[in-house]
Write a structure and sequence with these properties.
single chain; Bacterial Protein-export protein SecB; 4-stranded antiparallel beta sheet; 3 helices; 4 strands; about 35% helix; about 35% strand
Amino acid sequence: MSKHERNGADSLQSPFHIHDQYIKDLTFENPSFLVKYDKEAPQQEVSVGIEVNVASLSDNHYETSLDLRVQSNVNNEQLFVLELKYVGLISVASDLEKDILEAVLFVHCPFLMFPYARAIVSSVIGAGGYPSLMIDPIDFASLYLAKKDQSRATAAVS
């Protein structure tokens, strides 16, 4: 029995590999912390924004970044804002077609990186004196398709 027959996983080659993940930039501003103690203050509003960006580093090596912005307001007064740029260093197989390459870099890698970024956001907000925030899972495929549609619309107008 060959090695490949014993372990079928060895015979499959992944089209990509995430070599490393890290915080490239992190900002947390907490200018109005004491507002949370105001008895008449309504419940805080929290908004979450995310963007996926990809940069080519060299042949078959890329940087995929999750750019997250979490902001909380009460009566149009900012309680806190968190901005996180969480990056993965990725290499891909040289024979990937363009559509598959884009799906790997804009959908699959962000999907795998997101739980780590979400944990960082939750931890920092908790350390800032607020209840930890667990961001809902994100459909990166829909996000990618919407960005692609927007790019097409912008190109059509130009």
